[in-house]
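Before a colleague's protein record goes any further, I have to sign it off. What it holds is a sequence and that sequence's fold in C-alpha cell form. My question to you is simply how this chain folds and whether the C-alpha cells agree. Thanks in advance; the entry in question is below:
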Amino acid sequence: MGSTKPIDATLIAALQLGDTDLTDADKDLLRRALTHRSLIGAGTSYERLEFLGDRVLGLIVAEMLLKAFPQEDEGPIAKRHAGLVRKETLAEVATQIGLPAYILMSAGEETSGGRQNSAITSDVCEAIIAAIYRIGGLGAAQRFVEPLWRPFLERELEPPRDAKTSLQEWLQGRGQPLPTYEIVERSGPDHAPVFTIAAKVKDGTSRSATGRSKRAAEQAAATALLAELKKAE
C-alpha cells in the first residue's frame, strides 16, 4: 500500500467530523472511500461512493449558487455549477485538505504517480463526500463542502464562458469552419464512465481531453485546443 497514512485525527478534522462519535462502521466507510481499485484484496473500492458523492456535491453546490445569485437565470447558474463540480476543482480541494496521502492503492499504482493523479484524487474527494453524507446526513456533507467550495464560487463574479462557444467564436472571427469532436475512447465502469474526446480544426490541429461525461470532455478538449491555436497564432 506504499506510504499511505492511516485515518487519523487530522483527517477527521479536515472532514468536519471531529465532533462526530464515529463507529467502526463509519471508519470502514471512510476507508472504502479512500480505496483505489488497484489494491488487490480490498474487496470494494471507492467507485460506488464516488457515484453518490457526485450527486450530493451537485445538490449542495446548486443550493449555494441559488442563494448566492438570486437574480441569475438558470443558464448562467448552470455554467457556474459545471465549473464548481468539475474534476479540476475536486482535485484542488482534495490536495488542499491532504486527501492524497490517505488513499489506499497498490504499490504499482503509487509508483506510476497515482497519488498525484487528478482523476484519482477528484474521484476520492467525491467518494469522501458520499461517506460523510452517509455518516452524518446532508447537514454533515454541507458542513464539509460549503467552506471549501465557497472560495471557488466567489472567485469569478461573472459566470464562466462556455469553452466550446469560445472556440467557435474564435474560429468564426477568422473565417474558419467550426471544429469537430470525436470520441477517442470510453473507459471506466458503466456507472462512472470516462470519455476521451478529440477536438479538431480544419488544418488538422487537435487536442484530446478526458471527462466523466461527453460534455465535460468536449469542454476540456475545446479549452486545450483554443489555447494551442492562440499560442500558434
Remarks:
- Residues 163-232 form a domain with the Double Stranded RNA Binding Domain fold (CATH 3.30.160.20).
- The longest strand covers residues 180-187.
- Residues 5 and 102 are 5 Å apart (CA to CA).
